[in-house]
Specification:
Layout: H1 2-31, E1 36-39, E2 43-50, E3 56-64, E4 71-77, H2 79-89, E5 94-95, E6 101-103, E7 107-110, E8 116-123, H3 125-134, E9 140-150, E10 159-169, E11 172-175, E12 179-180, E13 185-188, E14 194-203, E15 211-217, H4 221-232, E16 237-238, E17 244-246, E18 249-252, E19 258-266, E20 280-291, E21 295-296, E22 302-310
Amino acid sequence: MKKIIQYSLLLGIFLSTVFLNSSCEDTLQKDMVDDEIYLLKEGLHTIDVYNFAEAILPITIIKSGVGQRDATASLQVKPELLQAYNTANNTTYKVLDPAFYTLKSTTLTFNKSAYKQTFDVRINAAEYLTLLAKNPNEIYVLPAQVDFQSSSTTEMRSTMEILAIPHIIEPFIGFNQFGLLNDANDINSKTAPISSYYLKVSVNYPTDKDVLFSLEEATDAEALVNQVNNEGSTNYKLLPKESYELKKNWDIKKGAKYAEVGYTVNKTKLVSADGKARYGDYLLPLSITEVSENKINPDSKLVLIPFKYHE
């Protein structure tokens, strides 16, 4: 009799658990939004195009919701969309000629769990930049319509439009702070013999691999110090190489936008032959000399770091 009672209790607990789980799932699904697929950016937008070996203008499609149905999105270039926009808004945007771009795909397929995909439009960057240089007052637009279809009979917004203005960005690496820095690093008789300092080196594009770069004293360091002195009536001296340590090779990790680079200055090396401290104002010109991916920004590849050494 005891076994029958125990069995009945266990069966009751099991059925209650199944019922509760089923109710929870029903409640959760009831509260969740049904699948929706849409353009991330609709209407007139400027879209960044990084001038990599292949310059891509991404038109991003998002599928959100419960994730219970497949869907497809198809893209068509439609110049009449821009004509209608210009008429409605009294603007004079120009349709980007197909000679300046190539559609890599015109259909995207989303399975139930898919979240984001892009229509990739390859931009002929060199020709496009030449076009902009010849017509600096014109703005060129890629007008497109995206049509959506779902495997479900549930209503879904079927059409959206985008007017995409390609904005070419040169993918660069450079110092966050560059040129002659305003604030001098203070070294005095009370500071530690060896002091550590840090700089940030960053890229202006999303990284899909480690970016390797080299950092060295500028090759024309002495001339740069003289130039600063001549232009600013200062009396800087070049920081002696024996007084600092700087690692040459660094990297910005995949997915990161910058790296923090460090170096040390040893004040005990700033002494004269008779052992006296060589007080004064010093400059350390550092330059990014090599990079594994893309280009070094000519405007931010050099930093001049001032030091004030005093009692």
